[in-house]
Design goal:
mainly alpha, globular, 9 helices
């Protein structure tokens, strides 16, 4: 194993916990107000795609950490949907489609799909911007956002050292999206 894989495993280990604070926050509050189900569903698809991409490029850290992270993100999706059977059917379908596409399609198409997948946070960026004018605190976990930003920082370093430009581009986009959500949510807290 290449020593730089340690950076990937650190980024992945931190990233594994991205969904945990959000799932616990939703369960504690008893609602998911202000949290975008579509964003978390798209993030599940994104982590799933990156797990399969890790397999495709023979990166143990990318494959394993993204697989474990997608399980944690799945817990947020399940908490937001509330129906276990419906949630599991949806998550299994996404996993099967992602696996087929990432493992069989040409690299150029996969690159486009992986770049597009990072915009999975866009629905939450929009919702968090709207949360500024909401009269009550939202269920968005700023701790989850901070964990995500830290994790992506390690993946950025990994991508630079490994010269995986696709990963670098997507890491920068992801960090920007998470930072915007964090900024909007903090403004929403101040507004209340």
């Amino acid at each position: 194993m290449h020593p730089v894989e340690i950076l990937g495993f650190i980024g992945g280990a931190i990233g594994i916990f991205i969904g945990l604070p959000q799932a616990l926050h939703v369960r504690k509050l008893g609602h998911g107000e202000g949290v975008s189900l579509s964003a978390w569903s798209l993030m599940f698809a994104m982590y799933c795609a990156w797990a399969f991409y890790g397999i495709r490029i023979s990166s143990p850290s990318a494959a394993l950490s993204n697989f474990i992270t997608l399980l944690v993100v799945a817990s947020v999706v399940i908490a937001l949907i509330g129906d276990l059977k419906k949630s599991l059917l949806f998550l299994i379908a996404v996993t099967l489609v992602d696996g087929f596409v990432i493992l069989t399609f040409p690299e150029a198409i996969i690159s486009i799909l992986l770049i597009a997948s990072v915009f999975s946070q866009l629905p939450q960026v929009i919702k968090s911007f709207k949360n500024i004018s909401v009269k009550a605190p939202t269920a968005v976990s700023t701790r989850a956002l901070q964990i995500g930003i830290t994790s992506v920082g390690f993946w950025t370093a990994y991508a630079v050292i490994q010269r995986i430009w696709l990963m670098l581009l997507t890491s920068i986009i992801s960090m920007t999206m998470s930072s915007l959500i964090l900024y909007f949510e903090r403004r929403a807290l101040v507004a209340h």
